[in-house]
Design a protein that fits this description.
Number of strands: 16
Number of helices: 8
Order of helices and strands: EEHEEEHEEEHEHHEEEEHEHEEH
Strand order of the largest sheet: 1-9-13-12-11-10-14-16-15
Distance between the termini: 40 Å
Strand content: 15-25%
Helix content: 25-40%
Radius of gyration: 21 Å
Shape: globular
Oligomer: single chain
């Protein structure tokens, strides 16, 4: 049942609820090719049951935001969970789609970027998690736009869980951490040793200070610092909110996971009514948000009591089972997709799961054991498709 916010608790990330399947256009297409793509995508969205709106706004679910790649304009949602697709033309298929599209994506404050080549041969997709993939045009407009919709619609209809409720009720004996937080610190150092922590595109160098603040609120993040680790708290507090675990904060240097409330957070549970992660923090700490993947970790811990730790990295291990759709980080849909693959693993407590176009989620008995298992197996290049 839903929880009441106790005295002293602070909540961040509450948003307008969107219930209707709606879409709107924003901006004037910079080229006829962009207009062609927007028109075609609008037609297939309407055919799929999305109602067109004359103007974008906080009650619209999907916005087709056309931009000029030389000077991308941001789309500001006014705290609404609108899914924004930035659409921009490129003279020819980009040699490096991520390098060409990622700055456009964050400057437009979008959830997804589509780069359409001026010869209309292909649409290249770029996600916030640095995933890239391409839909080729083989001469059949109907088949092409159906394939584009197949990529866009599952992401556009997914549900973010980025609200954090900070309760300043962490027990004093935990203010300096415990055995599990020591595990997190060692795990962060191992990630650095494996060169798995660098952020390819430091958004603070791309965005203005104002837009950087907006991005952090929009995506529920403290910054784009990829990868996260968590460890189940032993013994847990009987909060009635599900499993309890320590997890790395968002936007911090993962190689230095030390301060409780700032770099490491105790997740006390999940409030499904408000889509909020419940966090216990020391009373005198201004906390950082927990990693956006907290809902995914919570689902795995909830279903598998013997899972003691989880690692998420932007890397790959060949031959592993993987999710089918690249749902955005922090969504219920991604959490469910990963949990399903974990569920069907030969041993869910020692599973290695690929996230399509994204990276790995690895379960284990503890963090030290996870790194022993994956040592020497990791490759940096994530297959895209």
């Amino acid at each position: 049942m839903p929880t009441r916010t106790p005295p002293g608790a602070v909540s961040f990330g509450a948003r307008t609820t969107i219930t209707d399947r709606t879409f709107a256009r924003n901006g004037a297409p910079a080229t006829p090719t962009v207009a062609w793509l927007v028109d075609g995508l609008a037609d297939v969205l309407a055919a799929a049951g999305y109602e067109p709106r004359d103007e974008p706004g906080p009650d619209v679910q999907v916005v087709l935001h056309t931009i000029d790649g030389r000077a991308p304009r941001p789309y500001r949602r006014k705290n609404a969970p609108t899914f924004v697709v930035a659409i921009v033309s490129v003279p020819e298929p980009a040699a490096d789609v991520l390098k060409a599209g990622y700055p456009v994506l964050v400057q437009a404050l979008a959830n997804l970027a589509i780069l359409i080549s001026e010869d209309r041969a292909a649409a290249h997709f770029v996600t916030l998690e640095q995933g890239t993939y391409t839909v080729e045009h083989d001469g059949d407009d109907a088949a092409f736009f159906a394939a584009v919709l197949e990529r866009v619609e599952p992401l556009a209809s997914s549900r973010l869980v980025i609200a954090n409720e900070f309760r300043p009720d962490l027990e004093p004996e935990l203010w300096s951490g415990d055995a599990e937080t020591s595990q997190l610190a060692r795990a962060g150092e191992r990630l650095a040793d494996l060169d798995l922590l660098p952020s390819v595109f430091p958004i603070e160098e791309i965005l203005s200070e104002r837009d950087l603040r907006h991005v952090k609120l929009l995506y529920g993040i403290g910054g784009l610092s990829y990868g996260n680790v968590s460890a189940r708290r032993q013994p847990p507090t009987d909060s009635g909110l599900g499993p309890e675990f320590w997890m790395s904060a968002s936007g911090v240097d993962k190689s230095k996971l030390r301060q409780v409330g700032r770099e490491v957070l105790l997740v006390r549970g999940y409030d499904a009514v408000r889509d909020a992660m419940i966090l216990a923090v020391p009373p005198d700490v201004v906390p950082n948000r927990v990693s956006v993947d907290a809902i995914e970790h919570w689902m795995i811990y909830q279903e598998h009591p013997d899972v003691g730790a989880i690692v998420h990295i932007h890397a790959w291990i060949p031959g592993i089972p993987a999710t089918e759709i690249n749902y955005p980080c922090g969504t219920v849909e991604l959490a469910r997709a990963v949990a399903q693959v974990v569920r069907h693993a030969p041993d869910p407590t020692r599973a290695v799961v690929g996230q399509r176009n994204h990276g790995l989620t690895i379960t284990g008995h503890d963090l030290d054991e996870i790194f022993e298992r994956i040592e020497g197996r990791i490759v940096r290049t994530i297959p895209m498709g």
